Amino acid sequence: MQIYVEPLPKGRWGPIDGYALEYSDGTKMANQVFRSEKLAVSEVKLRGCKPLLAKVRITDKRDATHWEATD
Length: 71
Fold this sequence. Notes:
Elements lengths: L1 E7 L9 E5 L14 H10 L3 E5 L12 E3 L2
Parallel strand pairs: 1-3
Antiparallel strand pairs: 1-2, 3-4
């Protein structure tokens, strides 16, 4: 299963305050906000899923060019 590592706050330019873990339908995998992308990716892998990292600041889960799989 793929999990999206979403930069927060969503839909805004500017600094990233943290990262949320979400399924493709937008529901949260964890209620926690992660302080770094590395911590978020570690949590996704710990739960046995594959993380997708945002390649752009304002993301759209329906657009595959906005996302990059990581190991």
